[in-house]
C-alpha cells in the first residue's frame, strides 16, 4: 500500500481531495502552454500504451486462470482482446503519421514505468 502522502489521500476521510486539487492546478497550467495539441498527441500515446498493458495483463490473468478476488467483475475473454486490438489500431495511426511525437510519448511512458519500478 502506498503511503498516504504519495497517494494524495486525505487520511481523515479517505478522499482524494489533494489529488483532485493538484490535478486541477496542473490542468490549468497545461492550458497556458502555447500549443496544447502537441501535449494532447503525447498524452494520447501514453494513455493508449497504459491501457494496452493493463488489458494485456487482464488477458494474461484470464488465460492462465490466475485466482483473483471473489468480488471481481467477470467478462468473457473476447472483450479484453477486442479492446486490445482496437487500442493497437489507435496507436499505430499516430506512430505512422507523427513518429517523432509518438516517440516522445513513448519516452514519457517509459519514464513513468521507470518511476513505478
Summarize the structure.
The chain has 117 residues and is mostly helical. 73% of the residues lie in helices and 0% in strands. Helix 3 (36-63) runs antiparallel to helix 4 (78-97).
Structural class: mainly alpha
- What is the tally of beta strands? 0
The 3D shape can be described as: flat
What distance lies between the first and last C-alpha atoms, to the nearest angstrom?
Answer: 14 Å
The biggest sheet, with number of strands, parallel, antiparallel or mixed sense and barrel status, is: none
Count of the separate structural domains:
2
Number of helices: 5
How much strand content do the residues show? under 5%
Unreliable residue stretches: none
N-to-C SSE string, H for helix and E for strand: HHHHH
User: What is the typical, i.e. mean, pLDDT?
Assistant: 81
Specify the helix fraction band: over 70%
Determine Rg (CA atoms, Å): 18 Å
